[in-house]
Design goal:
heterodimer, A: 220 residues, alpha/beta, Rossmann fold, Alpha-Beta Plaits, 2 domains, 6-stranded parallel β-sheet, 4-stranded antiparallel β-sheet, 7 helices, 10 strands, B: 146 residues, globular
Amino acid sequence: MYIIVIGGGRLGYYLLKALLNEGHEVLVLEKDARICKTITEELGSVCFRGDGCEAATLAEVGTGRADMLVAVTGDDEDNLVACQVAKHKHNVPRTIARLRNPQNAALFKKLGVDVTISATDIILEAIEREVPTHPATELLSLEEKDLVIVDVKISPESTTVGKAVKELTLPKGSKLALIIPAEGSARVPAPATVLQAGDQIIAVTTPETKEALQEALRGI
Amino acid sequence: MKIIIMGCGRVGARLASLLDEDGHEVIVLDNDTYSFRRLPASFGGTALYGNGIDEEALKKAGIEDADMFVALTQGDNRNVMACQICKHIFEVPRVMCRIYDPLREEMYSALGLETLSPTKIFAQLLREKVGESPEKKAPGKKGGKK
């Protein structure tokens, strides 16, 4: 795959290294000549000095044949514009933008950026996963299908403890995929499977019905 | 009209005071309060500290019932992003965006933003000035100037 990375800062640098190790064709676009020189000295000619938001610069590095463009500069506005230019001027099939402000996720999606990544959100999710009282954690978001995979924990207070799966009223579009009991091995839920305290349920749902599913599973 | 201007530079401050004189409700947004020194003492609008690419700051400025938004910061990308927030999230009836880079300006114009490139406009203006010789412009004064 030919991957273009916008921004040769620390994130861009380690991303470049990792992608090169995986055998991809990678090019970093970086405005700062000094950073560009350092990367070139260390990793070879994989850094091009230029503004990744400029259509002309992107044309020069053959963005038209790129499979992916990843914008990881420290400024949301630059990442947005780089992705938009790649998409609209060079038809890059997949664009990924780093977000500083997690609130910008919705806007970026609306404007055609395929994937957004916010360090704030990732760290928050990690914290939520560590906090045992937190009832539901989003594990994965399948954006194209508008689905999310969540992990719901059944606590001793849950009113659904002792109920069978068939007795639950799940929101439309939600499916239980897996039940991981506190002890013993994971199993695929059957209609007669009875929920127990300490169960961990992996389920597929939509972002809108996430809360409703959590309520249906925990009864609280 | 309620008009929000992002960027209180020379152009922003001037536009703000002109629109204020015309009787509009003007709010100028800048992320550096020192920029507000450019506003004349007679300015009757609001100068607000805030980042125009932050939805919260825009809400504080009253974007939800604004009639117009003009982006005039030094950064093309900031202008582009702020205008897209105003157009697509807050659905402001009219959004104007300054973009210095002519190529970027063309692209965002094609994407539906109302864009202005001072680079293009000024270069064109100068080219026209070059085209017309001073003699042609003021034939009566030819040779008579001291």
